[in-house]
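To whoever is on call:

I kicked off a structure prediction for a single chain this morning and the downstream step that reads the tokens threw a length-mismatch warning. I double-checked the sequence; it's 124 residues and nothing unusual in it as far as I can see. Pasting both halves so you can look.
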Amino acid sequence: MHRILKFCLAGSIGAGTQLFFLYLFTDVFHIWYLQSGIYAFALSIVVSFILQKWWTFSHDPLNKINVEIGLYLANALINVVLNTLILYILVDILHAYYLVAQIIASLLIAVLSYFIYKHFIFRS
């Protein structure tokens, strides 16, 4: 249970990072929301990897970091495709506000990601 709470807090920080940059790129720099979403997602990956590896899963070994980064990025690539698809469906088809759509997408992806991190990427 403690790990799940840490995962949720770290995920909230990563999601906050993503929402901040999504808003910044979309509303301040006037970049198309789907393109902004990809940029924001990429930035949140860095924050999330650091928090998940060393805080949530307390996974210190550096000897496997190249493999972990590779698996993490592969998972992130799948997640960014899912995120973009969910955003498109919620915003363009269902006419949801893009920031609300991003929160929904983040929650859905977070559930899937926890199991992937725990059982495949940061397993002991």
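Update from on-call: the warning came from a stale cache, not from the record. Cleared it. Sanity check on the structure: The mean pLDDT is 90.
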